[in-house]
Design brief:
The structure holds 2 protein chains of 2 kinds.
Chain A lengths: L12 H5 L3 H7 L14 H24 L3 H6 L6 H12 L2 H14 L2 H10 L1 H8 L1 H7 L4 H5 L5 H35 L3 H49 L4 H11 L16 H15 L3 H4 L8 H33 L27 H50 L6 H25 L7 H23 L5 H21 L1 H4 L18 H17 L4 H8 L1 H10 L10
Helix pairs in contact in A: 2-19, 3-12, 3-17, 5-12, 5-16, 6-7, 6-16, 6-17, 7-16, 8-14, 8-16, 9-16, 9-24, 11-12, 11-17, 11-18, 11-19, 11-20, 12-16, 12-17, 12-18, 13-16, 14-19, 14-22, 16-17, 17-18, 19-20, 19-22, 20-22
Chain B lengths: L2 H8 L2 H34 L1 H4 L2 E3 L2 E2 L1 H38 L1
Antiparallel strand pairs in B: 1-2
Classes of the chains: A mainly alpha, B mainly alpha.
């Protein structure tokens, strides 16, 4: 088999963005920069086809069990805590975070650790404060929780807007990443790759609903964790499981030397550091496709277990990517065959990686396991994208059918058959839209999109969820104004920040009106203050009724009495 | 939920016990996690050299500390789940039992 990554130009967004803390945060979850098509990689294609055949088989099985709305949105509520933990971890371990974080470690060493810790620490807090209330109050979407005692129409419109914006941004980043990755790994045309991802995800979601989406995610999580474990073990075997020797070798070969063993240039200033910390921590608790997973388990007990397992798997995965990044330093940097070599035989160890810095984990797969394992890891990377976009599409479709169509447009006067039909139509529409946007954004700089998605999730969705659960005086007016303040301020500040103002709109460096890439430190408090202020100013009868309804909500959220159970079949 | 049932649960001392204990425990652990994480971020932001202190060969203080934070997140969730799934759930079961 020919080397799969015969790509020429890859001005990897990550390599450039490592210069700034939040810039790296944005890029590490998106694959950016121009890539060139590789030669067709048959091993990878055969393995990927095996994955597709297996998952379509599961979809066929899931379709026979997906009859009611509850089956479609929440897999009948019958997923176990362990399975859901794997699926949540799968949603979190996107191809871009696997490739991006190992590339970050490869380029800057220790900075990769700082970054992955930020991604992980939101999970314990989600467990301690909101997981069980979420499970006890919700049904299919987080809007069920936010609108529990507030007016359905405005709150569901707000929640659906927040969901759809987050899903759209995340989806575009994943689709563009998919197209580029597949071009690099499989040698397929960008447009074919995007269309193929779109069609497969439509099939999983429309036919198999949440059950198929969950199992695709579980299988992929197991494959990715096994593949990454194998790579990390092979690296450690090389050094007789002596970490000191591995790090010593890395320091010797890395152009930055001992600097890779301590914080580098990732953290620009304290405000950026804390702002990113807020966005990562609270953004996780506002991502619609993650929140939906809490409704797939039977009760609060299983919801808690899911977070416990998910935290374990995600933490383990980040430790693996750290070892993989260091393994790539020691095993690749002295081998010119992984680099673009100049006529005089020299090459740049950091920017000269074949296919771009994001490819180091893929190159390492070849270095430790040969062409066969390279094919396996390439197939897993593709499977990963497929699983993540399916979860996103299902979350977006649910916001359209359950929140906008059933509750806002039809005011609840709708039967299940109609609602499921609309959710399937919405899935197809979102899939087609994702294909079109994926192709339209091919040449665009999309590195900011995942960061923006996290900032909006933290600023619009999270404050409303938390306040509706814990503050009896929250009113419809307060939630609506505060939520939109968070949504709008996060979006505007991202556009005015350096990543978009200078990086995308092409204005001169230093001209951005807002100096930070991440707005969360301002937009999250703004949403809370807005919700608080417009709630206490609201003296209407509605506001008094909403406050009076809090007690019943509180009792249900604490005891689970009256909560949605698992369906009997 | 009926107003009568709501009143019955609200006046059950076990319900007060459950919510007070569980909420306090949740916040305690959350604050611990936040202190660990933001403590780390503040060191990164203001005293990055501290994390570069060598501990063994080229291994710096930052490496075991980073791994420790990842492991602590997992352990804290384990501690909470253990208590919530036994003590708190038992209390909750009794409350629901007593409403019947």
């Amino acid at each position: 088999m020919k080397r799969a990554t015969a790509a020429l130009a890859a001005a990897s967004g990550l390599a450039a963005a490592v210069l700034s803390f939040s810039g790296a945060a944005l890029a590490a979850d998106a694959i950016t920069g121009a890539v060139q098509k590789a030669e067709t990689n048959w091993t990878a294609i055969v393995m990927f086809l095996a994955f597709v055949a297996g998952t379509l088989g599961i979809t066929y099985w899931a379709a026979s069990k997906t009859k009611t709305a509850k089956d479609f949105y929440s897999a009948g509520g019958g997923i176990t805590g362990f399975q859901n933990g794997l699926a949540i971890a799968g949603d979190y371990m996107s191809a871009a975070s696997f490739l991006g974080i190992s590339a970050l470690v490869y380029g800057s060493g220790y900075d990769g650790v700082i970054y992955s810790i930020g991604f992980l620490v939101g999970w314990p807090v989600i467990l301690f404060l909101i997981a069980e209330q979420l499970r006890n109050l919700g049904k299919y979407t987080f809007a069920d929780v936010a609108s529990y005692r507030l007016q359905q129409t405005p709150i569901r419109t707000l929640a659906a807007s927040g969901s759809l914006v987050v899903v759209a941004l995340y989806l575009i980043a994943q689709m563009v990443g998919a197209g580029k990755l597949i071009q690099l790994l499989f040698g397929l045309d960008y447009a074919y790759a995007v269309v193929m991802v779109g069609i497969l995800m439509i099939m999983y979601v429309t036919f198999g609903g949440m059950l198929a989406t969950t199992w695709v995610q579980i299988i992929k999580a197991v494959l990715l964790l096994s593949g990454a474990s194998f790579m990390a073990i092979m690296v450690l075997v090389h050094y007789g499981f002596n970490f000191g020797a591995l790090f010593q070798a890395a320091v010797d070969v890395h152009p930055k030397g001992i600097a890779i063993m301590q914080p580098g240039t990732l953290v620009k200033d304290p405000v950026s550091a804390i702002s990113l910390g807020i966005a990562l921590m609270f953004g996780t608790a506002g991502l619609p496709h993650i929140l939906m997973r809490f409704f797939t388990v039977a009760d609060a007990k299983e919801a808690r277990k899911s977070v416990f397992y998910a935290t374990g798997f995600i933490g383990y995965f980040y430790i693996l990517t750290f070892i993989i990044g260091f393994g790539a330093i020691v095993l690749l940097m002295n081998d010119p065959s992984y680099f673009k070599v100049a006529a005089d035989g020299t090459y740049n160890k950091l920017t000269g990686v074949q296919g771009g810095a994001n490819m180091v984990a893929i190159h390492l797969a070849k270095a430790v396991g040969g062409d066969l394992f390279l094919g396996f890891i390439s197939a897993v990377a593709f499977a990963t994208i497929l699983a993540v976009v399916s979860g996103l599409t299902l979350a977006g479709a649910s916001a359209v059918s359950h929140d906008l169509y059933a509750s806002v447009f039809r005011r609840g006067r709708v039967n299940e058959v109609q609602e499921i039909r609309v959710s399937k139509m919405a899935t197809v529409a979102l899939g087609v839209l994702a294909i079109v946007l994926g192709i339209a954004f091919e040449q665009q700089n999309i590195a900011f999109m995942v960061g923006l998605a996290f900032a909006i999730a933290a600023s619009a969705n999270f404050p409303i969820i938390v306040l509706s659960m814990f503050w009896s005086k929250l009113t419809t007016n307060g939630a609506l104004i505060g939520g939109f303040m968070g949504l709008i301020s996060a979006t505007v500040l991202v556009v005015l920040g350096p990543a978009v103002w200078e990086g995308v709109l092409g204005n001169v460096k230093g001209s951005a009106p807002f100096p930070y890439d991440n707005p969360a430190i301002f937009s999250v408090p703004l949403a809370f203050i807005g919700s608080w202020l417009f709630s206490i100013l609201d003296k209407s009868q509605n506001a008094r009724d909403e406050e009076a309804a809090y007690e019943a909500q509180y009792i249900r959220s604490q005891t689970g009495l009256g909560a949605e159970g698992a369906s009997s079949h | 939920m009926h107003a009568e049932l709501t009143k019955k649960i609200r006046n059950n001392p076990k319900f007060v016990e459950l919510t007070t204990k569980r909420t306090a425990y949740g916040w305690k652990l959350s604050i611990l996690m936040l202190v660990i994480y933001y403590g780390f971020i503040l060191v990164v932001a203001f005293a990055p050299k501290l994390l570069g202190t060598p501990v063994s060969g080229v291994i710096t203080l930052g490496i075991p500390l980073g791994v420790l934070i990842i492991v602590s997140a997992f352990i804290l969730t384990g501690i909470y789940v253990r208590r919530a799934n036994s003590e708190f759930d038992e209390l909750n079961r009794q409350i629901i039992e007593e409403t019947k």
